[in-house]
């Protein structure tokens, strides 16, 4: 079964750091681009970041550029999101999503269950 | 950045109704639009990609159409399990954007 599973969420103080992980299984991980999408409580979906299958190309939303860093370890079938200088407005459920091939011109065909990040003192 | 608007933002409908949701893009995005369904406390689920292609396993009562700047998602006969929030997403260019969502509720 094709699936992705996020972990690493929790409560962190403003200005703090957190690293999210997304473990993939059931598909050839290195062949697919991946994305992170977040959803603040009671709000809509916001795309955060994307990374190519090789990890050589990354993209970010302006709202997170310079603070969040996406990476992947294809030997471990795992996607990461390093979150630094966190702000209250980063509070959200973070979803990992598999892109259908590349993300651009494709779609997000498999989603994880999400991991909650709360930024509060 | 490409902005997406959805209408209506909320609709109340009955089982068996035909439902249409519209998504408009601030500039042309060819056919690079996807539709997702999200139920409370759950992850989004892909319904339609490339504006009109039904994702494998999705019931045929869902259909999508459009290109350029105007797109529609149609549910031909609303079922109890279809009450959810629906989002469109453009994948034509970065940064990808989602529409604000349309909540479909029971009348």
Percent helix range of chain B: under 10%
The SSE string of chain B, one letter per element, is: EEEEEEEEEEE
Q: Tell me the number of helical segments of chain A per DSSP (H or I, 4 or more residues long).
A: 0
Q: What is the average of the pLDDT values of chain A?
A: 97
Terminus-to-terminus distance of chain A: 40 Å
Give the structural class of chain B: mainly beta
Oligomer type:
heterodimer
What's the shape of chain B? globular
User: Helicity range of the residues of chain A?
Assistant: under 10%
What is the H/E string of chain A?
EEEEEEEEEEE
How is the biggest beta sheet of chain B arranged?
Answer: 7 strands, mixed
Number of strands of chain B: 11
Query: Main beta sheet of chain A, described?
Result: 7 strands, mixed
Give the low-confidence spans of chain B: none
Biggest interface, and residues per chain?
Answer: A-B, 24 and 26 residues
Rg result of chain B: 13 Å
Q: Assign the structural class of chain A, choosing from mainly alpha, mainly beta, alpha/beta, alpha+beta, or little secondary structure.
A: mainly beta
Strand content of chain B: over 45%
Subcellular location (chain B): Cell membrane; Secreted
Protein name (chain B): IG c660_light_IGKV1-9_IGKJ3
Pfam families (chain B): V-set
Keywords (chain B): Adaptive immunity, Cell membrane, Immunity, Immunoglobulin, Immunoglobulin domain, Membrane, Secreted
């Amino acid at each position: 079964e094709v699936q992705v599973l996020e972990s690493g969420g929790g409560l962190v103080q403003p200005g703090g750091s957190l690293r999210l992980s997304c473990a993939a299984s059931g598909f050839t991980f290195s062949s697919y681009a991946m994305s992170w999408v977040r959803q603040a409580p009671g709000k809509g979906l916001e795309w955060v970041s994307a990374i190519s299958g090789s990890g050589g190309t990354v993209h970010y939303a302006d709202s997170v550029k310079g603070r969040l860093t996406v990476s992947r370890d294809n030997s471990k079938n795992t996607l990461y999101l390093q979150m630094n200088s966190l702000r209250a407005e980063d509070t959200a459920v973070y979803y990992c999503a598999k892109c259908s091939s590349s993300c651009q011109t494709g779609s997000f065909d498999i989603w994880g269950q999400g991991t909650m990040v709360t930024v509060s003192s | 950045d490409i902005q997406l608007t959805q209408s209506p933002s909320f609709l109340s409908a009955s089982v068996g109704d035909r439902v249409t949701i519209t998504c408009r893009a601030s500039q042309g995005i060819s056919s690079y639009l996807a539709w997702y369904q999200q139920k409370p406390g759950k992850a989004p689920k892909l319904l339609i990609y490339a504006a009109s292609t039904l994702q494998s396993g999705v019931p045929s009562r869902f259909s999508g159409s459009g290109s350029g700047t105007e797109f529609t998602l149609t549910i031909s006969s609303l079922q109890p399990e279809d009450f959810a929030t629906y989002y469109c997403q453009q994948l034509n260019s970065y940064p990808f954007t989602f529409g604000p969502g349309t909540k479909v509720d029971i009348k």
